Amino acid sequence: MKILNFPTGRINSNCYVVEKEGKCLVIDVAYHCQKLIDHINSNNLQVVAILLTHGHFDHCGGVEELKRGCNLADVPVCVHKDDAELCQDAQHNWFRITCENCYPTHFVEEGTLQIGGFDIQVLHTPGHTPGSVVYLLDDVMFSGDTLFYMSVGRTDFPKGDFNQLKNSLQKIAKLQTNYKIYPGHSQCTTLQAELQHNPYLN
Ligand SMILES: [Zn+2]
């Protein structure tokens, strides 16, 4: 499994491509994602799903651009149902960043998800948004805007809830694997490092 990051958009959202045997998952897509499109096309990667960690437009506002750029009309676009409304209505774009509406085709919920040879564990981690999720693959965690290097996502946006976020962080803290964490912004980290040094986790 190979993981590449294509930081995209005005506030550098991390957009990840997870590759295995010519197939890939795309995790979050911000607008102006031409580098991501070029990578997928020039490597002939088969995109099996676009997984969204949440419905903010710096994470899903480039989905339609990616689908056009790579001919992905039939590829599933997955998000938790509680963030579907956010994705589909650019009026909710609090950040005034460039984006398009995004139209999810599948809803994910807590549990396992098998797509195109990838086994994914989904944790529902509300707080930053009601439908925020964390995706686990092998020993890797894609934490979206729930957990960052030495920090956590803001909860002062519409529908954010700090108490929910605290509960979600406790759920993450109880995981038994020292996951390598790929967050929605900023640098990678590990669960162990966050448990030791992140003031919101210890
Ligand atoms: Zn966000």
Give the topology.
Elements: E1 2-5, E2 16-20, E3 23-27, H1 34-42, E4 46-51, H2 57-60, H3 63-70, E5 77-80, H4 84-88, E6 106-108, E7 111-115, E8 118-124, E9 133-137, E10 140-144, E11 147-148, E12 151-152, H5 162-173, E13 180-183, E14 189-190, H6 191-197
Parallel strand pairs: 3-4, 4-5, 5-6, 10-13
Antiparallel strand pairs: 1-2, 2-3, 7-8, 8-9, 9-10, 11-12, 13-14
Helix pairs in contact: 1-3
Bound molecules: zinc ion.
Description:
The chain is of the alpha/beta class. The chain has a single domain (2-197), classed as 4-Layer Sandwich (Metallo-beta-lactamase, Chain A). 22% of the residues lie in helices and 29% in strands. The chain contains 6 helices and 14 strands. It has helices at 34-42, 57-60, 63-70, 84-88, 162-173, 191-197; strands at residues 2-5, 16-20, 23-27, 46-51, 77-80, 106-108, 111-115, 118-124, 133-137, 140-144, 147-148, 151-152, 180-183, 189-190. Strands 1-2-3-4-5-6 form a 6-stranded mixed beta sheet, with no helix packed on it. A 6-stranded mixed beta sheet has the order 7-8-9-10-13-14. The protein is globular. The two termini are 31 Å apart. The model has no long low-confidence stretch (mean pLDDT 95). The site of zinc ion (ZN) has 6 residues, from loops.
